[in-house]
């Protein structure tokens, strides 16, 4: 019986096979690069907002502490977005007729919250807690960047699993004192070694790498 493929056909089949393999590798490399890029991870994402609220003005210029508005950070999983009456503490006197504040006055009059668009958003199958970080020496800046310089709020960090794990693997060098948690542009005056922060806050780094810490 004659062979199914002649030698020439075998060589051709081999070349085609190698070609397909090379193409598959190229596609997965491309997919991986896109997957890791800021585009895919949402770093740089800054949605439109109903009011052009600026952290640059309020946290930077006026020097308001983050917790003046984000009251949940120490006690809850959520930092929280301030209600309209927090704005009105000042804006019933400041810029009272400004057109750009019309939605704020409207929200107060109708007793309906402003419809802010979320900037940061983890998938539902992950668990995150502000309290766990803010009370253990992790500053807002480590995860949100220089918010005091933002005219529009923007996501600065990728918030991928790999990014979370980079710190969870060895959190010590990322930690700071209790009274510097909301400080922007923090730089350590004295060089406290990482392991001293770990014992200072009583952190158990082994637990931080377990899947069930973030997927429960
Ligand atoms: C005067 C009140 C006020 C102060 C002070 C303030 N914020 Fe905000 N923050 C807001 C409002 C309102 C929003 C929702 C609109 C927006 O995203 O810009 C917001 C949104 C954010 C978001 C994005 C939330 C999301 O949707 O993912 C982050 C992060 C944030 N603030 C961090 C900070 C940090 C850090 C500080 C301190 C340096 C701070 N804020 C100070 C009012 C405030
Ligand atoms: C502690 C007082 C205070 C609070 C609280 C406050 N503001 Fe302001 N806001 C000001 C002052 C003062 C200015 C004017 C700043 C200037 O002239 O540079 C201002 C300016 C603004 C402007 C004009 C654009 C800009 O940023 O320069 C907007 C919009 C605004 N505020 C929205 C809000 C909203 C929304 C809230 C509530 C989440 C809020 N403000 C809470 C004091 C406050
Ligand atoms: C360890 C990282 C980390 C630190 C530290 C951190 N945040 Fe966040 N923050 C996040 C992540 C992640 C989200 C999105 C959470 C989600 O989608 O469930 C978020 C969401 C927010 C939001 C949106 C509303 C909410 O509660 O989800 C605000 C406002 C905010 N952070 C403010 C702050 C402020 C202010 C501080 C410091 C006092 C701070 N964050 C510290 C990671 C962090
Ligand atoms: C800059 C460092 C840093 C980053 C970034 C960070 N974490 Fe953490 N995380 C910590 C520290 C420190 C603790 C406190 C550990 C403790 O309580 O012993 C912690 C605790 C936690 C806890 C609570 C663990 C428990 O059971 O008490 C969860 C959940 C968590 N992190 C999820 C996340 C997720 C999800 C991300 C990414 C979106 C993230 N973290 C990013 C440093 C970080
Ligand atoms: C420190 C928190 C943290 C720990 C620990 C962690 N994850 Fe994740 N994981 C995340 C976050 C945050 C995302 C969402 C990433 C995104 O949206 O890009 C994620 C996403 C995933 C996904 C979806 C695919 C992907 O890569 O986006 C899988 C599957 C997953 N994790 C499995 C695991 C397993 C298995 C473990 C244990 C070996 C683990 N995770 C430990 C935070 C964590």
Please describe what this structure looks like.
The protein is an all-alpha fold and 216 residues long. It has a domain at 73-80 and 120-214. The protein is 43% helix and 0% strand. The chain contains eleven helices and no strands. The chain has helices at residues 7-36, 38-41, 55-61, 66-69, 84-91, 102-110, 130-134, 140-144, 161-168, 194-201, 211-214. Helix 5 packs across helix 6 (102-110). The longest helix has 30 residues, at 7-36. The chain is extended and about 90 Å long. One heme C is lined by residues 122-123, 126, 160-161, 164-165, 168, 209, 211, 213-215. Keywords: Electron transport, Heme, Iron, Membrane, Metal-binding, Transmembrane, Transmembrane helix, Transport. It is found in: Cell envelope. It comes from Litchfieldella rifensis. Pfam families: Cytochrom_c3_2, Cytochrom_CIII. Its cofactor is heme c.
Name the bound molecules.
heme C
Task: Characterize the main sheet.
Answer: none
Radius of gyration: 25 Å
Strand content: under 5%
Note the overall shape. Answer: extended
- Head-to-tail CA distance between termini: 62 Å
Overall pLDDT score: 90
The number of distinct helices, counting runs of at least 4 residues, comes to 11
Uncertain parts: none
| SSE-based structural type | mainly alpha
Helix content: 40-55%
Number of strands: 0
H/E element order: HHHHHHHHHHH
Organism: Litchfieldella rifensis
Protein name: Cytochrome c3 family protein
Subcellular location: Cell envelope
Pfam families: Cytochrom_c3_2, Cytochrom_CIII
């Amino acid at each position: 019986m004659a062979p199914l493929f002649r030698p020439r056909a075998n060589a051709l089949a081999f070349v085609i096979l190698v070609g397909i393999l090379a193409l598959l590798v190229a596609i997965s490399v491309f997919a991986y690069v896109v997957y890791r890029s800021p585009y895919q991870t949402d770093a740089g994402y800054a949605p439109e907002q109903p009011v052009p609220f600026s952290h640059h003005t309020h946290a930077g210029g006026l020097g308001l502490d983050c917790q003046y508005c984000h009251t949940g950070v120490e006690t809850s999983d959520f930092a929280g977005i301030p209600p309209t009456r927090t704005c009105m503490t000042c804006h019933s006197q400041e810029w009272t007729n400004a057109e750009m504040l019309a939605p704020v006055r409207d929200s107060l009059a109708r007793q309906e919250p402003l419809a802010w668009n979320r900037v940061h958003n983890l998938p539902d199958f992950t668990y995150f807690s502000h309290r766990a970080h803010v009370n253990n020496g992790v500053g807002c800046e480590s995860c949100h960047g220089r918010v005091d310089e933002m005219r529009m709020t923007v996501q600065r960090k990728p918030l991928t699993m790999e990014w979370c794990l980079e710190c969870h693997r060895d959190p010590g060098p990322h930690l700071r004192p209790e009274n510097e948690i909301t400080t922007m542009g923090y730089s350590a005056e004295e060089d406290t070694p990482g392991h001293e922060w770990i014992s200072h806050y009583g952190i158990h780094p082994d637990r931080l790498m377990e899947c069930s810490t973030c997927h429960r």
